[in-house]
Structure formats: structure tokens, C-alpha cells
Design a protein that fits this description.
2% strand; mainly alpha; single chain; two-stranded antiparallel ribbon
Length: 508
């Protein structure tokens, strides 16, 4: 065994197996993906494309995107796609946290609705190559924050990485993401999910976690607090699942249901086992009766033993026994049939042999599917590169069009101002008429637009009898006519009117 000091951020290859000291061992371990599945030649070309080179160093590029997000400037999906491609050049954990914060802030913007598939692939692939798969799992769980999803190819790579290192729990957590996304397009992906969840359930990790959770619940003291109302607890049995056993059970059920294996009896037993672990006991008994017993097919002994333990625990609990009373009756009836004809309906196949069967089925699927996946990945690299160049050219074109529009509008404003100055004396009367005809709505309340239901009289009264806004707060005595002055005006009018009438009569 040769141990060589190696940085945690050094790019890894699948044949290099890292130890806890940061070195890597050249000792082989079991895996289900070949090195050709990773398409390193085409992937390396994609990482050093012309567009990626133009971006510059990852530190400067990440800082520029962060400044744009702080200033609320436009950050396009292409920018984030290129940033995800440049993650492979990160040197320390601080830079990686800074980039993760950028993805978190970008998730809150509107362009995050139009992210590209290449961004997800590059992000996951670079984290695997940086030996940060454990950190990647935490990001994948927080989809509402980061918005990173697995596809079939990256999920296979991530599960292969954990299986290679013997970490079946994290491999099963990666398989849960495929189940939650309901991605059943790739048979190799489904077979890998089935295998990893089986190994996780049979490795004893789930039982240890359940014991730890039970001890923590006993140690915790209950606190009573006064609240205004109680929320009704709701569990959608999908995204709200927290138990690893339930998640593995649903993943096994989902994978077996959508997977086409040569051994149909193995497929049906895996569906039954998944329903039992998923705690869907009514469906499990119904499926067992209709698909296995009625068709005279065998059931694995370890599945019956697990189911019998579940039934015993349900019978011991009064509430659950009442809830699943019909299911327990069916189970008792079917168990009698099994006891009478055990050799016909029960198979003595143990867990290790079942896992070996699943591995054999996985290898058969891998021989057929891996070539297709390799060709598809190579085509995707070329396609993504072309799409990036086309999108960049389109952005440049849109930018130049916007700049031309702004320049044209600015020139039109200047021409209008020059036209007003040149033609002022020719259109002087028109300007004056427009000024007095339209007025300024900010000066007089009478110039406010009249609603259709308002009367003409009301509009005229507002125009002629209401004071200006600047006089609204003044007392009436300050701008009204006094009584003495009004009497003088009346007397002057009478004198003037009488004199004018007498002069007209003398002329006649």
C-alpha cells in the first residue's frame, strides 16, 4: 500500500481512494461504474472551453457576480453556469463557502427560474471531483435555498463514489433524492438506488439511529407553553419523510416498481419489502396476496420475518391494533396458508444472496445502459458548449440593441429641444394657447380631471369659487371683501350707471 499526501481540493479520479489522512490508496474496492462512464476526456475539454477561459480566474469572477447581486444588477443563468464550471479551480474551503453563498443569493432572483441543466451537472460533478460529496448532500437537501438537483448521470456518479468508499448511508441518501424527484428514466440509476438502499438497511445503520433517537426522546424534558392555536400536523409521506428506514423503503418500492428485471419474483419481493419498510402495511398485505400467493410464487423468508415483527408490535399497541385491524386479520389468514404450505410459498433465500442477485442485475443493466449514457454525456457536453456560445452572442446582440435605442432616444430629445428653440416665434401663439387652455394641474384644483359622474355645475363652482391651494389654510377674512368696501363699490356702480344712462338719453 502506497500513501501519498494529497490536498482535499485536488481533483480526484474514481480509481483513487482517499483515506482519512488526506492521502489516497491504490487498493481496489467494489464499484458499479467504470472509469469510461465519467467521460474524462470530453469533460476536461468542456472545462477548458474558450468561453470558460474568457471568464478569468474563479476568485475574480465570483467576486464580480457577488457585487452584481449586492447592487441588484442582472445576473443571468449563463453567469451561474460558468461559475459552476469554474468551481473545480477552488483552492480552499473559504472560497467554496463564498461561492455557495452566491448560489443562495441567486436563488432569490427571478432569473433563477431559467437555470440550465448544465449548471446542475457541473456543480455536482465538481463537488465530487473536489472530494466534497458529504457537503454536497447537505446542499441537495436544501433545495429551496440552493436549487441544486441531481440528474441520472450525476446521481450514478455520487452513489458510485460512496459505494466505493463503503459509505452506504450517504449512498442511500443520494438515492433518496432520485426518488423524491421521481426520476425513473434511467434503469441503471434505478438499479443503483435499489442496491444502495438494500445495503443501507442491512448494514445496521438505521437501527443504531433509531436507538439514538429513542434515547434522546427519553432524555428530553417536555416543556408546556401557552399558545393561541395548535397547527394540525400533516405529513405528505414524500417530502416530509425524515426516517431513513421509511425513505429507503419508499426508494426500494419506487425503484422496483419502475425497474424491469429478468427475475420477476425478485422484483415482486423487493416491492413487498419496500412497502413493509415504508410502513404501508395495508398495501403490503394486499400486494402480497394478489401478486405472490395467488400466483403461487415464493416469498423470501427474511421479508416474512420482518413483517411478522411488525405485526407483533402493532398487536401490542392498542391504538395501532384498532387502526390496522383488517390488515391484521388478513395477515393471520395468510400466515395460516403459509404454515400449511411453507415449502410452496416460502423461499429460504437470505439477504446476502438477494443483494448478490441485485448486483448481478445491476451489472447486466450496466453493460447495456453505460454505453448509451456515455454517448449521451458526450453529446450533452457539445450541446451545452454550443448553447453557451449562442446565449452569449444573443446577450451581446440584445445589449447592442438596447444601447442603440438609448442613443436614438437621447438624440430625439435633443432634436425636440432644438426644434422648440428654432420654431418658438413661429409657434408662439400656439404655445400660449396650449398654456392657457390646458393649464397646469399642480397649480389649480379646477384643472384636476373630472370624473364622468360629476356635474358641470360642480366643476364650474370648483373653478370659480374655490380658492387656490396656497390660500386654502388662510381665514376667509384675509382674502374676502369687507362690508364697508362692498357698500362703497355698490354706490360707485350706481353713480356710474346713472351717469352713463343720462348721457345716452341726452345724445338721443
Amino acid at each position: 500500500m502506497i500513501q501519498i499526501g494529497f490536498s482535499i481540493f485536488k481533483k480526484t479520479r474514481p480509481h483513487r481512494l482517499f483515506n482519512s489522512n488526506g492521502g489516497f490508496n491504490w487498493q481496489g474496492k467494489r464499484k458499479f461504474l467504470s472509469e469510461s462512464y465519467y467521460c474524462y476526456d470530453q469533460w476536461d475539454k468542456y472545462l477548458v472551453s474558450d468561453l470558460v477561459k474568457k471568464v478569468g480566474p474563479v476568485n475574480q469572477y465570483s467576486v464580480s457576480i457577488s457585487d452584481k447581486l449586492k447592487n441588484k444588477s442582472l445576473v443571468t443563468p449563463l453567469d451561474m453556469d460558468l461559475l459552476a464550471t469554474k468551481i473545480i479551480h477552488v483552492n480552499n474551503i473559504q472560497e467554496l463557502e463564498f461561492i455557495e453563498n452566491i448560489f443562495l443569493n441567486f436563488r432569490k432572483t427571478q432569473p433563477a427560474l431559467f437555470v440550465r441543466d448544465s449548471m446542475h451537472y457541473s456543480f455536482v460533478r465538481n463537488y465530487i471531483d473536489l472530494n466534497q460529496s458529504d457537503r454536497l448532500l447537505q446542499i441537495l437537501k436544501l433545495k429551496y435555498k440552493y436549487g441544486i438537483f441531481l440528474d441520472s448521470y450525476t446521481a450514478n456518479m455520487l452513489m458510485d463514489y460512496f459505494v466505493k468508499n463503503g459509505n452506504y448511508k450517504n449512498a442511500a441518501l443520494a438515492a433518496h433524492e432520485i426518488m423524491l424527484q421521481e426520476n425513473n428514466e434511467n434503469e441503471l440509476n434505478l438499479a443503483a438506488c435499489l442496491l444502495t438502499c438494500l445495503k443501507c438497511l442491512r448494514s445496521g445503520i438505521v437501527d443504531d439511529e433509531q436507538e439514538e433517537s429513542n434515547t434522546e426522546d427519553k432524555q428530553q424534558t417536555k416543556e408546556k407553553r401557552l399558545v393561541y392555536f395548535l397547527r394540525k400536523e400533516f405529513n405528505d409521506e414524500h417530502f416530509d419523510l425524515k426516517s431513513i428506514a421509511k425513505l429507503c423503503g419508499k426508494t426500494i418500492y419506487f425503484s422496483s416498481k419502475n425497474l424491469k428485471m429478468d427475475d420477476q419474483n425478485l422484483n415482486k419481493n423487493m416491492i413487498l419489502y419496500g412497502l413493509v419498510q415504508y410502513e404501508k402495511y395495508d398495501k403490503a398485505v394486499e400486494f402480497w396476496e394478489n401478486s405472490l400467493i395467488k400466483n403461487n410464487e415464493t416469498t423470501y423468508q427474511f421479508i416474512i420475518d420482518d413483517f411478522r415483527k411488525v405485526i407483533e408490535s402493532l398487536v401490542a399497541n392498542e391504538e395501532k391494533s384498532q387502526k390496522f385491524s383488517e390488515m391484521i386479520q388478513k395477515w393471520n389468514h395468510l400466515s395460516q396458508i403459509l404454515d400449511s404450505e411453507s415449502s410452496k410459498f416460502i423461499s429460504s433465500t437470505n439477504v446476502e444472496s438477494v443483494i448478490q442477485k441485485v448486483e448481478d442485475a445491476l451489472n447486466k443493466i450496466n453493460e447495456k445502459q453505460s454505453k448509451k449514457d456515455i454517448e449521451m454525456q458526450n453529446e450533452l457536453f457539445v450541446k451545452w458548449n454550443q448553447e453557451q456560445n449562442n446565449e452569449l452572442n444573443q446577450q451581446i446582440k440584445n445589449f447592442t440593441i438596447e444601447q442603440k435605442k438609448k442613443n436614438i432616444l437621447k438624440r430625439l430629445d435633443e432634436l425636440e429641444k432644438q426644434e422648440e428653440m428654432i420654431t418658438f416665434f413661429e409657434k408662439r401663439q400656439e404655445i400660449i394657447d396650449a398654456y392657457y387652455g390646458k393649464g397646469f394641474p399642480t397649480e389649480y384644483p379646477s384643472d384636476i380631471p373630472i370624473e364622468p359622474e360629476e356635474s358641470i355645475f360642480k366643476a364650474k363652482s370648483e373653478r370659480h369659487f374655490k380658492p387656490w391651494p396656497k390660500y386654502m389654510n388662510r381665514p376667509k377674512s384675509s382674502y374676502g371683501i369687507s362690508k364697508s368696501r362692498a357698500i362703497k363699490l355698490d354706490s360707485l356702480k350706481k353713480i356710474y350707471l346713472t351717469n352713463s344712462n343720462q348721457s345716452q338719453k341726452n345724445e338721443n
